[in-house]
Recover the amino acids of this structure.
DNA sequence: CTGAAAGCGCTTACAG
DNA sequence: CTGAAAGCGCTTACAG
């Protein structure tokens, strides 16, 4: 009976939890000594430390995060706010994979991820304020970067660990992690031009997000550099828009011989339209996507895509944020350290060539 | 300058946070009075309460969750452990949507969701132990219910708020929320038989999960009841398996005229195989899925599916878990209340008929 | 290397 | 209706 020593608490409801005082009692030392021992800090002899650790294990002691947080220790949580409806999130393969990647790394450091869904950008900023004000999180990840994003100055002002997902640019002095869309675009266009395509379309998602504009520019620039014609086709959000955009392209008198879609979902929707219209992929139309996924991989024909693994993206983001939090804790001078952590990190995109473009008989 | 009164703390690092003591000072009352006031408890006059609230707002006071937790208040967090690799999670549309639904409801109650990815069932159980031991969470959601799941007795023994996602059955005395797969199966089979199909295949996912076996049984039973022939085809996990299974079915001498897939991802992969083989949907083969999604909706032809919205599922689960946590806090006698909360709740599935089965010329 | 004390921010009885 | 005190579980100086 390991519980023999636990006296019945008043109220007799839940069992009283074991604390460092219990351990100290047993070990015949003071609670302070236990604290030093279990935290691996100097101040107790090796023998005492060993004895204390044994007792702690024996009593099944678990440190109280609340008590620790109260004395200024990290709360071991990072936050992420999403200003989009749950329905939209659910439809996006990227979200689940990104979160999974974040979790994977955070878990190993015993950090938890806290998420909140809000209605507006104002509510998002207010959430950051409250989270940091209450010391609910040690840092935050900010997603869906927009142009002239009001969240950036708000987070700068808070002066707390925050990592922007997206860029480069528009993230002010905040550290950021992003996939280099310019490089990704170059990879895609070069590949298609190399196959002989001279008229290439880009079916673009919501213009609101920063990367959309960035891809637009890089796409047009690169096409021009290579002497090809770039056709921009706005599609708005999701599969519906992509299908309509594809139909629009087919209706043109001078239709392209290759289409690059902004996401796997859009590429699949577009491919369906092509199939319906009796257009063979890749023989009559090459198809590529900025986003890879299991669906892109198993589709027939499999879709050529940029291998920005959302899972990997999440892992890199989590690693980076933990670094920032760590730097923040040991910062000697607030501003110097802050500046040092404000660096960006790019994730290199890779082109994964598959059947949807391979061997295309372009032009 | 609302900060005029804040004295510079030692160390001059972070600004000292404002506490109820600051408010008490200003209001000329004691900290206890402030506590009563801000928590809406009796014990202070209306006038005093109003004055205190004003000052709290003025000083931008935020309660410290750590301090509150230390005195026994709920920590406002629920946990979910996932014993699957991040990659697998990322590929599954269900995960992101379910989490989004959970979040949506939890956020409104100021609860946060804590997730952890682990390697094994043992690690999962250990995580529950630590979470509750440390009072890191007020309750947990358990997903991926299996037959004779060792997590069920482990959670029963912990005696803390826990909700099982899945069932019915195999969740012991724990409360559960599940989609009635038997009903879903009936809806699907009845629909197909009603269209004239007499030989119907079911392409099933991983046998490990509880619902797979449940669907198998319900499928065979219902086919028999209606005088149709049910063909079971195991596919293992994901799109790859579904494609192979579909090819297997086509190769049979007596191929079915309709296929029901376990997920949207599998249905899409299977449909691709059908298209490749020149088989028209729904004219030559009807296709249906146990799982709806944006992809199933926008696919051409759109896939008939069971409308268990994963988002909605998440919402129901969160609501239920919050009820359980609440009941647990006010429980008069540990066991009586525990029993009262141990009820299950089914989410009614709906059949959404789309082009992939409509107007099929069966048999 | 060890002990005694004060404090983190809040809540909860218990007196007045 | 209000005040003073003790306590939640831990950590951090500061003496010995």
């Amino acid at each position: 009976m390991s519980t023999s020593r636990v006296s019945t608490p008043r109220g007799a409801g839940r069992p009283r939890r074991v604390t460092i005082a219990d351990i100290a009692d047993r070990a015949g030392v003071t609670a302070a000594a236990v604290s030093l021992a279990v935290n691996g800090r100097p101040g107790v002899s090796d023998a005492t430390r060993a004895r204390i650790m044994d007792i702690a294990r024996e009593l099944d002691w678990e440190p109280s995060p609340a008590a620790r947080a109260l004395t200024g220790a990290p709360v071991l949580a990072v936050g992420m706010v999403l200003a989009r409806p749950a329905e939209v999130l659910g439809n996006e393969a990227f979200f689940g994979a990104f979160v999974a990647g974040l979790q994977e790394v955070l878990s190993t450091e015993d950090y938890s991820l806290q998420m909140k869904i809000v209605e507006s950008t104002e509510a998002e900023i207010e959430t950051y304020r409250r989270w940091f004000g209450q010391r609910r999180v040690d840092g935050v990840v900010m997603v869906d970067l927009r142009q002239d994003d009001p969240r950036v100055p708000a987070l700068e002002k808070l002066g707390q660990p925050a990592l922007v997902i997206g860029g480069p640019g528009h993230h002010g002095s905040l550290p950021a992690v992003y996939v280099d869309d310019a490089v990704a675009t170059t990879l895609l266009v070069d590949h298609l031009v190399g196959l002989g395509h001279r008229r290439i379309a880009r079916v673009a998602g919501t213009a609101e997000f920063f990367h959309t504009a960035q891809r637009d520019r890089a796409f047009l620039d690169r096409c021009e550099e290579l002497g090809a014609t770039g056709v921009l086709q706005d599609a708005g959000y999701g599969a519906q828009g992509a299908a309509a955009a594809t139909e629009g392209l087919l209706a043109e008198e001078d239709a392209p011989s290759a289409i690059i879609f902004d996401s796997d979902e859009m590429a699949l929707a577009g491919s369906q339209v092509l199939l319906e219209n009796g257009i063979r992929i890749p023989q009559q139309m090459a198809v590529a996507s900025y986003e890879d996924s299991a669906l892109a991989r198993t589709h027939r024909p499999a879709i050529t895509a940029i291998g920005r693994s959302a899972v990997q993206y999440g892992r890199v983001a989590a690693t980076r944020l933990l670094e920032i939090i760590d730097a923040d804790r040991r910062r000697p001078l607030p501003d110097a350290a802050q500046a040092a952590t404000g660096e960006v990190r790019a994730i290199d995109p890779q082109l994964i060539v598959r059947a949807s473009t391979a061997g295309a008989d372009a032009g």
